[in-house]
Amino acid sequence: MEYETPLFFRVMAYANEADRDVVDMVSGNPDWDPPAALREGLREYADLEPDAFQYPPSVGLRALREEIAARRGVDVEQVVITNGAGEANYLAMARALERDRGEEILLTDPVYPYYPGKTTMLGGRPAYVATDETGRLDPAAVREAASEDTAAIVVNSPNNPTGAVYPEKTIRELVTIAEAHDAILVSDEVYDHFDYAGAFSSALGIESNHRIVTNGFSKSMAITGLRVGYAVFPHHLVENARGRHMLVNVATTRPGQYAVLKALHETDPDYYERNRERLRERIDAFTEALEAAGAEYTRPEGSFYVMARFDGFPGTVENTFELIDEAGVAGMPGSGFGDSREDWLRFALVTPRVEEAADRLAGYLG
């Protein structure tokens, strides 16, 4: 089975080898501190008895699964703790395909590149539904594209790369479409803590056997290196997902799960609001500089990415490398997210050097 190495790695490798200072706006690695309770949890773990350093239950620590289930209003047996949200999406998409209801995975355009990569790796066939200019998905377009060969519809809200947030009406209609075609809606909600518009709606709010919700703590707790995610499956789909998870990963990090649970118990909501406010300020600063440079841009309703388009400078890999060499700013080429944004570039606002990066872009492209 052939599939492409994600373009992220090529761009990051090029930036790392550059013979100059480069502001990294490629990857979504938060630059702020994790919750204090999470650090304390890791310190506590170091002093536990030897059996705490052995395999955890494959599906995850029971206490963490119970906490997630209580917060999300689901049965604990539906929750599988995964190696980040990335594995959660892999399990969800695999589960949709192995039901033998079809081989097509409907994705959005633009799309987070790992979704089509996983689709191809799993033997599925990606198909695309274009979003509108704000990044929103029109359910009518999904309904028109769906068929008896549709195994899954994969959506991400708040969205990477557009920053769009899908309202409850959209999510409800997407679940209805999945039910009509005996497909699975896979709703990736890993950016749910970064909703600036107040419009986010989880698919877990809709009762259905045709939706799987994935999430994780990498972004919300600024711990992309700990790899603690989860998926919530309908009861009739969870057993096979558990089996695949065990065969692929055995389990995920026990210290990470312990620390995440402590952070869930002891972290004040102000922690998340401070980080949202930090990002609001960065969005303002970055988009103001883009506007001054005459660029077209998206203003995110959620997540922490901005897409920008400069006249005469399309978002190709070659132009991305040029920006690294000449402007000292590393972003992602829009062509990596699908055909509809190939003229655009995507920038992650998870660096304290946002204003400096914007000034460099304006100076080179303005």
Automatic annotation (TrEMBL):
One Gene Ontology molecular-function label: transaminase activity
Pfam families cross-referenced by the UniProt entry: Aminotran_1_2
PROSITE patterns for this protein: AA_TRANSFER_CLASS_1 (PS00105)
CDD domains: AAT_like
Residue intervals passing through the bilayer: none
Any single GO BP term: amino acid metabolic process
Assigned keywords, A-Z: Aminotransferase, Pyridoxal phosphate, Transferase
The keyword Transferase appears for this protein: yes
Cofactors demanded by this protein: pyridoxal 5'-phosphate
Assembly information from the UniProt record: Homodimer.
Name under which the protein is recorded: Aminotransferase
Source organism (scientific name): Natrarchaeobaculum aegyptiacum
